[in-house]
Design a protein that fits this description.
By secondary structure, this protein is α/β, with parallel strands linked by helices. The chain is built from 5 helices and 5 strands; from the N terminus they run αββααβαββα. Strands 2-1-3-4-5 form a 5-stranded mixed beta sheet. The protein is globular. The chain starts with a helix and ends with a helix.
Length: about 150
């Protein structure tokens, strides 16, 4: 979908902000039901000395504070890499309706790579997942970052 491509571009811009800050380049954008961007964030665990400061969690915090509610039904989160267990758990707790990610994460992905939590029938909330949006761009940004670190 064209709209997914557009919002993933905004998530990629956030990932580039993370890169400029010396963080792992992951970006997230949270969009409301009407298409308004409610929050933007990038990875900041190093800068904030906070292991939970992943882009998805920071975007959820910003949107929840803005709305005055920890539940964010009807929203969509766009993130450049498949969320980890922690982030996917936060998305489920927030009752996010839809997740769109760029590149899969074979070492930590909780949607399709290592785990398939959004499909788990034991959970009381499920979210729609679309992966592979602008995958090559998202993967390249991460690979370049880690290549330079080695």
């Amino acid at each position: 979908m064209e709209i997914d491509y557009q919002y993933m571009g905004e998530a990629l811009a956030q990932a580039r902000e993370a890169l400029a800050a010396g963080e792992v380049p992951v970006g997230a954008v949270l969009v409301g039901e009407g298409g308004e961007v409610m929050a933007r964030a990038y990875n900041r665990p190093i800068g904030l000395s906070d292991p939970t400061a992943h882009a998805e969690v920071l975007a959820l915090r910003e949107a929840a504070a803005r709305l005055g509610n920890y539940r964010l039904p009807g929203t969509t989160v766009y993130v450049t890499i498949e969320p980890c267990l922690m982030c996917l758990g936060a998305l489920l707790q927030a009752r996010v309706a839809r997740l769109v990610f760029g590149a899969p994460d074979p070492k930590g992905g909780a949607c399709v790579s290592l785990y398939r939590l959004p499909e788990d029938p034991r959970l009381n909330h499920h979210l729609e997942v679309t992966g592979g949006v602008r995958e090559a761009e998202c993967r390249e940004l991460l690979q370049d970052f880690f290549r330079e670190r080695r």
